[in-house]
Amino acid sequence: MQRAFLRPDHGLKGTLQRSTCSSSQPARSALRLPASRTQRGAVGICHSSGSKRDPPHSEQHGERAVRTPFSPLGFMPVLPDAPEQQQQQQQTAAPTATATDTPHDASSTAAAAVELYPGVAAGTPWCVTLVFPERICPERLVFVVHQLESDAWVRDHGANFSLQLRSPCLGDLVEGVLAAEGGYEHWGLLHRLQRVLELLDNAEAAGAAGMSFMFTWLRLSSNRLLDWQRCFSYQPRDITWAQQQVAERITEKARSSSDPAVRMYARMTLGKLSRGGGNGDEIRMGILNIMRDHGIKEGNRGGLDEPFLEQWHQKLHQATSPEDVIIAEAYLAFLHSANHEDWWRVLAEKGLSKEQIESWEQPITALPMHLPQLIPPISHYHWVLKTCHSGAELDTALTCAQGFVDPDLRWHLHDLLGNRNAWWAPGKTLELRRRLKPYCEAPGSSRDLLLLDIALESWLRLLVERQDKRALSGDDLVELMGLVLGNAALTGTSAELELVSAQWEAVRTCPDRWSRAWCLAASAALGRVTLALSAFADEICSLVQPYAELFGLRCGIPAAFTLNFSEEVVRDQALFVGSLLAAELEPRLRTAAGASSWQVVSQVQVATGKVVLLPDLLGVQGVAFDQPTVVLAQALGGMEDIPDGVVAVLTRSSTDVLSHVAIRARTQGVLLAGCSDEEEWRHLVELEGQQMSLSVASSGDVIAAPPDSTAAAASAAAPSTDASSSNGSEAPSGSAAGGAAAAYQLAGACWREQAAQMGPAFLRVLQEHEFQSDVVGAKACNLAKLRKRLPEWILVPRSVALPFGTFETVLADPVNADVAQQLAAIDAQLAGIAGSKAKGSAAAAAAANGGSNGAAAGVDGGAVSAVALLARARELVENQLKPPAGMQQLVHQGLCKAGLLQGDAGSSSSSIQSMDSALTTLPTNGTSPSSSSDISSNGRDQHQQQLALPIHVESGPAWDVADPACPAWTACWSAICGVWASKWNHRAWLSRRSAGLPEEQLAVSVLMQQVLPGEYAFVLHTASPFSGARGEMYGEMVCGLGETLVGNHPGRPLAFSDKPDGSEMQLLALPSKRQGLFVPAGGTLIARSDTNGEDLAGYAGAGLYDSIPVTPLEPRFPNYATEPLMWDAAFRQQLLDGLVELGYAVESAFNDTPQDIEGVWLGGRFAVVQSRPQVMAACSGSGNGSSGAAASSAGRQRAKALAAAEAAEAAAAVAAVREAGPGPGVGGGSGEWEW
User: Fold this and answer.
1) Which stretches does UniProt call biased (Polar residues) (predicted)?
2) 774, 538, 792: which is closest to 657 by C-alpha?
3) Nearest C-alpha neighbor of 1077 from the set 1103, 1106, 1038
4) What is the pLDDT averaged over residues 182-204?
5) How far apart are CA 188 and CA 180, in angstroms?
6) Structure pTM?
7) CB under 8 Å to 842, separation ≥6 — which residues?
8) What are the C-alpha distances in Å from 1122 to residues 503, 1125, 1131, 1162, 1235?
């Protein structure tokens, strides 16, 4: 008979399954893991005896068979004797789990016809189920199996069986470690490694957060910031065994974990560990043999009295550690020179001081004697120590790993070591890493292989870091950047780095280096590299730094060692040197391409403050400015902190994107940018003492404008803003912000009275033909106009709308009475804060802005800040607003009627049919689709020859109208409420308050629109947003959907300009957005805000309110290495030509009024999702500090001037780029990208 003795460990709940079999079958046991991560587990146990079993609930059956601390009967193992009892248990008990063991042979089972207990024969499979309530369910169940007949203990590969029944609590894991490190009296390196072995699986299960904690813990240990010996001694063989076990386990995580982040942190952790293994007894006996062989006194044995060796011998016996390798190296240096200065020098170089070695529990206080005869034995002993305590050190790693590789690779590795400083060493190192990769990834490969790979990675980084970057040519910088990115991509822990490396390789192998076309491609690739480096660094800092500070607080580590811990981790990575190369290469590319003279390191939407000129930031470290400040710093060293109160830092120097100051700027939300143009910088200096608002244009330039032009400047900086105008006339210039409040009468005044009279009957969903300016916003009205006026080759997505007053009607429903009451109180408080504006109350101003830090802070009299009130209002609407009865059916019917969802609500059309109905055979006669007869297209009408491709568009999963908790409806209602809640955005509230818009008249309609799965998204201005010139189009395009444009996501879009004089279209920039957003599988709808308070005369309210997809869009990293927009010049030109034609068509549809157009390109077709009259205020000013952009872009002007002079060269270079790369699948003969 076998019985299972379960030993709970840290807590879990699970299922113990027991089965019987005939005596002819061998006894066996098996562990059955649960199929999913739930609160359950199973272990199968077989019995070799056919005798009658003990009845259930008896001591023999339960208490002795299953040991558990849960003694109440409710927690006792239960043996069901009938299916009815099993069903009853499943219905009444807490979540349980059962699993079946491996099926037995039917004949064998039948042969054992012995009654187990009344009604059940022996041989009948049965199980024991442990039921744990949620509150006491343990995380893990650890147990062994004992076979009583043979007295054998069955284990899992030498260890206890372990069942992970629920995800580990990371907080408990962290707290347990901190308690041990900070409070245990007896603790040391051996205990730490043993605890790592226990917690490693739980850390992996916790993902990046868990594994980054393990990394932080062990890095602090390797830096000797945690105690290695605290009232505890251990033998060398114990510590070397523990080091080996930890290294092997972490190697396995780095090689085979399914989570790339876990693999990355495991690899980073291994790089700071000792390899372990070796011969621990040789450490203990080796030093004794040296002392005895050379007549040195040891203990009571007589001989030469050498106190240093005796003290070192005691340390080696009781607490050997990696520090002993350093001591051996320092000792050898002294033995060779007989100079104690060499002893102290080597110790200091390796991080050991006199105070440290004298403070150990086995201190070393004596200086070594000069015994040169000990050089050979100490050299050998030094190697013994290295084989145990060294890790990713190149010489040791190669020696230990050379037996695992083929002879040819082994020869090349030794050749590299012999010529490690040769000029060709960086390239050779990367080549050998590529050859070594299959060995490292092989299942069960040795830890020494991965340690060798880490050592090679670090060595390549060191070789590149040693280079004098300023003395290198541009070509050398390009080649080195390729090596650095290839080195980082080989780790296989980041899909983004692999894509970035591939893109840079495509740039590196392109012909015509340093032509304008090549520089544009290289600048885009470098911008993408910079974004990847920034994201890599920021992610590490966000995970690692909090843990380091926790250790500092709980373990008494001085703040000086934890303050910049995460930044030191970033700088220790092989990828860090890429930021140094990028800082040197970027200005050279910008100069060669005639691109923007600005390097934006940390970007914000708008930064407003007083301009202060400083030589640097060092002189103001620790200073807190009492008002928002824009600092113009002549130079930055990279290690400065951003002072409190600073909203922007502009500098003349190039800034490393991974520097301390860059990381601080991104963390604090501070604009940080460098200017390489002397004239632009001089103009900024002239603004000292003035209040200025800074924004970043899509071209990458930093625009400075007076605060009263903030809204207009933001419009110029982000021309892709999501908004519409209420009429077809050009929006007037100017802004009411900062000036006298205008008296606005908002459209749709009749809805409030109608909603009050009709009550719930007011609720309705409007179809497109019902869109009118008194019931919906301009966004919906303009779409309805576009469908009627645009040529057939331009698509317009279908949509429906929840009109003005819908929110107020929903809020008035009795089910939302409590929400309505709370919102009314909040609005009254907000009105009080806004009303005090005219009185100039400082307290009210602080309340409106949430205090100096923008937090929800109190003001005089206990008033609550506007930030807190607005946040509470949004929370109420987003999370507590409930749909009235029948709302779900109403919305569903409206969507089905428009063909946006499949259903029978008055229409059987599907989303696919709704799009197909808009598709007709396109004109193929070459005539222009625009009604304008004077358009000079220069052959651009070729885009009309495109095929009428079928377009499959889905709008999300089907609804179960009868189920109020239907996930599809829940997601739709959440998006609708999110749009309504955006009325209380802080920015929108401040804007309305500043412009004097009447809050009681503001109405928000919700436009429910199909999200087209665009391959590219664009924004097009039919008049120049910079000069205001009519017909001079400016456009931007990104991969995926336009949210990366309107949302100001990091990176630059493809940008171009086209003049109506027939001159060559000018390509200003190629795309470098870090991520693209794409429609999820199955499609989705988007709830778009559409208010009556946008784009009024003298007021630009675009982008103040939210648009929310029902199903979140999927972020992906674009593969720019094979992206046709980058490399297929012919495709790109046809696409942009078609976009220009689209601009003329849309402008013509609105009586030749300049338009701000948003749309997508999908399946060979253009679609317009929004168009509004273009706001011209910020760009048509005089350009001086009082009315226009105070710092115009010299880079953009140079780009325009270069267009005519370099037209022929650019065309030839573009053609060469297309012909040379990037290989198969890009603009090839498949016809995929044909028009």
Assistant:
1) 16-27
2) 538
3) 1038
4) 92
5) 10
6) 0.73
7) none
8) 8, 9, 13, 18, 19
